[in-house]
Amino acid sequence: MRTLLVWVAGCWTLAGLSPLALANGWNMPVGVTDLSREIYSLHMTIFWICVAIGVVVFGVMFYSLFRFRRSRGAKADNFHENTTVEVLWTAIPLLILVGMAVPATATLVKMYDASDAELDVMITGQQWRWRYEYLGEDVAFTSNMSTPRAQIRGEEARGEHYLLEVDEPLVLPTNRKVRFLMTADDVIHSWWVPDLAVKQDTIPGFINENWVNIDEPGIYRGQCAELCGMDHGFMPIVVHAMEGEEFDEWLAERKEAAAEEALGVDRDWELDELMERGEAVYGSICASCHQAEGQGAPPAFPSLAGNERLIEDVEWHVQTIVNGVSGTAMPAFRSTLNPVEIAAVATFTRNAWGNDTGDAVQPSEIAEQLAQ
Amino acid sequence: MAPKLPPQPPLEHSSAATAGGAAAHHAPPRGMLRWLLTTNHKEIGSLYLIFSLIMFFIGGIFALVVRAELFQPGLQLVNPEFFNQMTTMHGLIMVFAAVMPAFTGLANWMIPLQIGAPDMALPRLNNFSFWLLPVAFLLLLSTLLMPGGGPNFGWTFYAPLSTTFAPPSTTFFILSLHIAGISSILGAINIVATILNMRAPGMRMMDMPLFVWTWLITAFLLIAVMPVLAGVITMMLMDINFGTSFFNAAGGGDPVLFQHLFWFFGHPEVYIMILPAFGIVSAIIPTFARKPLFGYASMVYATASIALLSFLVWAHHMFVVGLPLVAELFFMYTTMLIAVPTGVKVFNWITTLFRGSITFEPPMLFALAFVVLFTIGGFSGLMLAIAPADFQYHDTYFVVAHFHYVLVPGAVFAIMAGVYYWLPKWTGHYPNVRLSQWHFWLSVIGVNLTFFPMHFSGLAGMPRRIPDYALQFADFNLVSSLGAFMFGASQLVFVAVVILCVRGGEKAPAKAWEGAEDLEWSVPSPAPLHTFETPPTFSPHVH
Amino acid sequence: MWSVIKSVLAAFFGVQKERQRRADFETGRPVVFIAVGVVMTLVLIGLVALVATLAAR
C-alpha cells in the first residue's frame, strides 16, 4: 500500500522537524525567574517523555501496519489476551507518572509560597484594562493598550509590539520578591506574562495571590488570558523590570506626582484645563465602550453624544461615573479614578460632541461627594 | 477466528417481515408526517445523523468565520463582539448539536442491531428525544438575530460574564440548553433500558460489542451530569431574571462556584463525547485486522475506570483560579491517573493490529488516523495535567490544539469511521472507495494543518478566544486558517460520498466486511425496517 | 469477600485473568461487586487526598 508508505514518511519528516519546535517563538519561553525556568524544564521533560512513548507506540503501530498487511500475505493470528503484557503496560506508565508527579509537586509547592515578599502590588482586572496599586506606597495607575485603533483596522502600518504595548507599564524591581494580590471589578480576567510564568485569574469578590522574583531587567509582555468580553484581545500587560535602585527612584517620583495631583483637588480648574485632561481620560478609559465620538454601541453601551438625561442632570451623570450602574457593564470608577480625573471626564463628556452644556465640574465637588 | 455469528441467523424472520406484512400491519403515514411520527429506531437514527450533519456544517461555518478573521493580524471581517458570538456558537453547536446527536444516532441505529433487539426499549420517548433537538437548536441559532446578539461568553459561559454582563438573549440560550439537556437525558435512559433489558437470549454483559458497552457507560454519565448542567443554568437564569446572586460577587455570590459546577458537568461531558468513539474504533480495528480485539475485558474495565475517574478531575480546568494547594495536587494526581486506562486502550488497539491480516478500507483509514491523532491529543493532555506547567498552557492555543485533537480527529473521525463502516448496512451499497480516500486524505492533512500549528502559537504565548493577535503569531495562524478551509471543503466530499452511497453503488451482502463479526451483520443489507422481530439465538464466544 | 476485593482491585488496575473473570461473573452477585467498587472508589479518593495533603506540607 503506497499511501501507507507516504504516511510513514510524513510522520518521520514531522519527527525530524521537531527540533525546529525548540527554536525561539515556537516554544514556551524559558523566562526570567527561577520558577519560570523550573516550569520550562518540567515542560520539556514531559514533552520528551511523550516523544519517547510516541516513538515506541507509533513505531510498533506502523511496523504492524506495514508488516501484517494482507497484501503482503499476512495471515491473522488469533491471540487476544496476555495478562503479563497487560500488567506491564499498565504498571510502566503508572511508574512514569509517579516519576513525573514528584518534581511537579515540588515546583507547585514553591509556587504557592508567597511569604516574605518585599513589595505588594494589587492587580485589578477591569473591562478592558489593568489597574496597578503599589500597596502602602500611595501609587496607583491604570494601564491601557496604546496600540492605535487605526493599526487594528489596517489604516496604519503595524508597529513591532502591535497589541502588546501599553500607556503605563507595571514597573517592578529585579531581585526582590514581589507579591501580587489579584482581583477584578467586573468579570473574570487572567493576568499572564509568559516570561514570568505567572498566570492567575482575577476574580470579582476574590483576592488571589501569586509572586515573582525577576532576575533580569527588561521589558516583558503578556495578555489577558480569560475571555472577558468584547475587548478581551485588547488588554495587554507590559512589565518593566528595573534594578532595585532605579526602581526606588521611579517609585519616589511617582509618589511625588501623586501627592501633587492630590493638591490639585482643592483649587478651581478652568474649563479648558478640565477638557484637555478629560479628553485624555476619556480616550484611555471610556472610549473602548462608549466609542471615540461618544456614539456608544447600543444596547449594551449607550450613546453619550446627545444623551438627554446626561445633558439635563449633572448629579445623575456624576453619580453614574462614581458608582456605576449595577446590573450593566458600567463599572464604578470611585476607586479607579481620582477626583481630578472624574471631574475632568465628566466635564469633557458634558461639553464634547455637541453636548455643549458649558458646565465645568470641579474636582473639589467630586472629592466632597467621595468623602460622604 | 471465533465463530461469533449465530449458527442459524434469523434472516428468514426479518426478510419475511419486510417482504410480507410490515408495511401492511404498521401502515406508516407518508411524507413529512412519517418522519415526525416515526418510532422506528432506524428512522430516528437516520434523523439524528442527518440533523447532526447539518449542524456540523453550521458549526463549521462559524469556525470558518473565526479562522477567516484570524487569517492575518488586524480586524478585517467582523467586529470583536460578533467574533465572540462565533467562537461561542461554534463550540456550543459542535458539542451539543453535532457530536452528541451523531453518537446518539449511531446508538439508535446500531445498538438494537448489535444486541439483537427489535427496536429501542421506549420508541415513543425516542421520537420525543429527537424532535426536541431541532427545537432547541433553532432557538439557540435564533439568538444570533436578537438585539444585542447571541451568546458571546464562550461555550463554557463563565459567570459573571454570562450573567450580569451577558446579552439579553442569554435567557433563550438557557432555555435551549435545557431542552437539549432533556433530550440527552431521555435518550440516555432509553439506551440504558434497551441494553439492560433487550439483549438477545444468551448474550451476557461481557458478550456485548464494545460499542454497546461504551454507550452503556456513556448513558450513565449523561444521566449523572446533565442534571448538573440543568442546575447551573437554572442558577444563571435566576441571577439574570430573578435578582438572586449565586454567581454575583457584589451580592455575596461566588463566581468560582460556577466553574466548579460547570466542570463537574463538563469533564464527564468530554468523556461522553469520546467513549462511544472508543467503541466504534474497537469494532472497526478487529474487523479489518481480521483478528479478535485484544484485551476485551480490560477495554471494558478501562472504559469504566475512565468514566469513574472523570468525576474526580474536574478542577484541572481550574488550575489558575486560585485553588488551595491541596486541591491543586489532588486534581493533578487524579488527572495523571486517567492517562493510564486511556493508554491501555491505545495499547490494546495496537496489539490487535499486531500479527493481524490488515487491509485499509475507508472505515479502517479513519480508525487508524483516530488512534494516531487521538494519542497526540492524549500526549498534550498529559502535559496539561502537570499543574505547574499548566500555569503557562492554560487558556492558550495549546489547549485549543489539545481538545481539537481529541475531538476532531478523535470524536469526529470516529463518527466518520462508523458511518463508513455501517453505510453498507444502512444503504445496501458500499461507499465509493476513490471518493472516500480523497475525503480521508484531505481531512487528515486539513486537520493537522489546522491544529498542529496551534501547539506552537499557544506555547509562544497566544491566548485563546482573541479576535486579533500580535505579529509573531501571524505565520501559525495563516497555516491554521488555510488548513481549516481545506478541512471544511473536504467535508463536502463526505456529503457527496454519503449521497452517492444512498442512491447506488456496489451492492453489499449481509456481512459487508469479511472480518466483521457482530450481530448486525446477520441481517440483510440494507437492513429492513424491522429486524429481529423474533430474537436471534446468540452463541456466546470467547472474546 | 477477599476474592471480591481482589477482583475489584484487578478491575481498578484494569487487568484480570480470564478464568477469574469468568468465575466472578458466574458465581458472584453484581450488587456485592458494585458495593465494594463504590467503597473502594471512596478509599481511592481518600488515598489521593491524603497523598496531596502530605505533599502540600
Topology:
The complex is a heterotrimer of chains A (372), B (543) and C (57).
Chain A: H1 2-17, H2 34-67, H3 83-111, E1 119-126, E2 129-134, E3 139-143, H4 149-152, E4 170-173, E5 178-184, E6 189-193, E7 198-202, E8 208-212, E9 218-224, E10 236-242, H5 244-263, H6 271-290, H7 308-312, H8 314-323, H9 339-351, H10 363-371
Parallel strand pairs in A: 1-5, 4-10
Antiparallel strand pairs in A: 1-2, 2-3, 5-8, 6-7, 6-9, 9-10
Helix pairs in contact in A: 2-3, 6-9, 8-9, 9-10
Chain B: H1 11-19, H2 22-26, H3 31-37, H4 41-69, H5 80-115, H6 123-142, H7 170-197, H8 210-241, H9 255-272, H10 275-289, H11 296-309, H12 325-353, H13 362-385, H14 387-393, H15 397-427, H16 433-459, H17 474-503
Chain C: H1 2-13, H2 18-27, H3 30-56
Pfam families (chain A): COX2 (PF00116), COX2_TM (PF02790), Cytochrome_CBB3 (PF13442)
Subcellular location (chain A): Cell membrane; Membrane
Domain Cytochrome oxidase subunit II copper A binding (chain A): 116-253
Q: Can you walk through the features of this model?
A:
- The complex is a heterotrimer of chains A (about 375), B (about 550) and C (about 55).
- Chain A folds into three domains: about 1-70 and about 80-110, Helix Hairpins; about 120-260, Cupredoxins -  blue copper proteins (Immunoglobulin-like), CATH 2.60.40; about 265-370, Cytochrome c-like domain (Cytochrome Bc1 Complex, Chain D, domain 2), CATH 1.10.760.10.
- Helices cover about 45% and strands about 15% of the residues of chain A.
- Chain A has ten helices and ten strands.
- In chain A, β6 and β7 (about 200) form a beta hairpin.
- The model of chain A has no long low-confidence stretch (mean pLDDT about 90).
- Chain B is mainly α and about 550 residues long.
- Helices cover about 65% and strands about 0% of the residues of chain B.
- Chain B has a single domain (about 35-520), classed as Up-down Bundle (Cytochrome C Oxidase, Chain A), CATH 1.20.210.10.
- Chain B is built from 17 helices and no strands.
- In chain B, α4 (about 40-70) runs antiparallel to α5 (about 80-115).
- With about 55 residues, chain C is mainly α.
- Chain C has one domain.
- In chain C, about 85% of the residues lie in helices and about 0% in strands.
- Chain C has three helices and no strands.
- Chain C has helices at about 1-15, 20-25, 30-55.
- The model of chain C has no long low-confidence stretch (mean pLDDT about 80).
- Chains in contact: A-B, A-C, B-C.
- Chains A and B meet through α1, α2, α3, β7 and β9 of A and α5, α11, α12, α13 and α14 of B.
